[in-house]
Amino acid sequence: MEYRLINDEETWDAILRAHNGHPMQSWGWGSLKEQTGSWMAHRVVCEDGGKFVCAAQVLERKLPWPFRSICYAARGPVTERDEDVPRAADLIAEWCRAHVHAVSLKIDPGVSGIKLGDGWKEGNKILIPNTATLDLTPDEDAIMASIHSKKARQYIRKAGRCGVEIRVATREDLPGIMELYHNTAEQDDFFIHEDEYYYKAFDAMADVNQLFVAEVEGRLLAFLWNITMPAAAFELWGGVNDEGKRLRANYLLKWHAMCEAKKAGAKLYDLNGLFNDGISKFKMLFVNEPTMWIGTFDKPLSPLFAVWERALTLYRHFFK
């Protein structure tokens, strides 16, 4: 088994597109994490006799001595088939042990019904495993018919009749988008980053961004920010104002995003995470039932992992 590091954006994203890689494994997502946090991205391909076995964008974060570092592969590893994930997870973990001397590797692959190998243990969640997904492989008429709620289908059409228009957002739209996002976060009580984070995301993730705005007569009503590759379209951020809710702009916006993801070749639309809140109830109007991925798992790679885990627990207890 041979490991190969990829240091070119075009080459890495081509590998992901060819082998079912999630957009959170994209070069742009890794670049964003490098620019906005204490992460370093390693793009690793594992091959057997020159044949692809698996890949992962491994984010490494340095830790205080003597722990060295921890690693995280968001929605990784990348494999041809879901059933190959357990072997791939072990191979990427071994790379992390040998090459960055990490105390652990964390993964949260978007797969169901898979059991990882020995040594893996459930870890603290970063991405929510309980989500809502829609199959994008049928034609648009079939996808529309598959939307669970008749009301949702009616509201999609109503928004169009009310003059709501959807377009691709530009960088010049970001100030208005951020104002709308702050208002939505305040109303629905969820965390958002500083504005600079989203400006950097717009530039860093140009390889996978699909950012749309809904308007009526030039007034911003809603936005939806997805990242998309052939494996999936993944909703990151969104918001809607009161006028947008009244005109059902968020329904048409989501439908338009699904259609554009399909045109981009995505096989799955992931509405990203379900909580017990109004936003999740809105998401569930589009699907028949929730999707449950296997969750978040850690692979200890050093005896120091137990010490690090205990230290982290104490830190959260006293400084939360």
From TrEMBL:
Q: Which family does it belong to?
A: Belongs to the FemABX family.
Query: By what name is this protein known?
Result: Peptidoglycan bridge formation glycyltransferase FemA/FemB family protein
- The reply on keyword Acyltransferase is yes
Q: Which organism is it from?
A: Collinsella ihumii
Q: Which Gene3D superfamilies match?
A: 3.40.630.30
Q: Which domain of life is it from?
A: Bacteria
- What are the residue boundaries of the N-acetyltransferase domain, all occurrences included? 164-320
Instruction: Note the Pfam families from the entry.
Output: Acetyltransf_6 (PF13480)
Listed transmembrane segments: none
Where in the sequence is the signal peptide annotated? none
Question: What keyword terms does UniProt attach to this protein?
Answer: Acyltransferase, Cell shape, Cell wall biogenesis/degradation, Peptidoglycan synthesis, Transferase
